[in-house]
Structures are given as structure tokens and as C-alpha cells.
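Suppose you are handed a protein chain with no further information: no name, no annotation, nothing but its sequence. What can you learn? This example shows the usual starting point.
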Amino acid sequence: MVAAQVLFNQTVISIPVIYFCYMLRNCLGYDREMRLPKPHIFVLDIVAQVLSEEVFFYYSHRVLHHPRLYKHFHKKHHEWIMPIGVSAIYCHPVEHVFANILPTFMGSVLARTHVTSLWAWLTFATAYGVIVHSGYHLPLTPTPEFHHLK
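A reasonable first move is to predict its three-dimensional structure. Written in C-alpha cells, the prediction is:
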């Protein structure tokens, strides 16, 4: 059940939405420079993406906890109570788009980040999502209070 939903989200949902985000960047004339960005540009890009993701994820997650939306979209994510990394994307497809994919990409679109910065950010954001849902505690990270437990 979990594997089927995650596979669906990763293939049927993620691939077209990420492709759309990529095409949007190209249509808007974003820099596809093959040279690596200067270190200070890379740092600024990452900061912009982190701040953007924090804001967009926070508000999308709050909206998904609204009683009228929770039972239709976000409840599926909270069905899985065991701490396992793959549960990060065990969710309704609508939630996957609006709470997982778009918040992660919005900083890149809004700040016009270099593609290398985007890929570094996506790697970090994906790893962080898996770690948060795994139940493990890493140094310098918040306490791993698994948020699905009641």
C-alpha cells in the first residue's frame, strides 16, 4: 500500500510536475550557464530556496490541516505511523504537488537560482525529508519527535 502510493507519486505525479517546473524555468529565460556559480551566488541561492521552502511548506501544510481539507488530502500522510523515510511522500497526489514539490521548487523559480544550486538544494531537501520521517536524530537537527504519533 505504501510502496504503491509512493511509486505513483514519484512517477505519475512528480515526473510531469518537475518537468513543468523545468520548462517554466526555460520559458522564463533562466540562466542555464554550464559554469558553476560563484561561491557567494551559490550560498545566496541556497538561502533563498531554504527560506522560500520554509514559508511555502508551512502555509501549505497549515492549509492541509484545515478540517475541510484534512480528511480528503492530508489524512493519508498521517495513516502511516511507523518512522520510515519513504513515508515522507506517502500522501495524496494533491498534497504531494502542493506540499512537497511546489514548495521545494518555488525558491528556485522566484529567485532565479542557478541550476547547480537547484540540484544541490533538491538533494538536501529530499534527504532531509527522508531523515525527518525516519525517526533518526542527527546532530544539530531538531529532536526527532515523529510527528505522526499521537
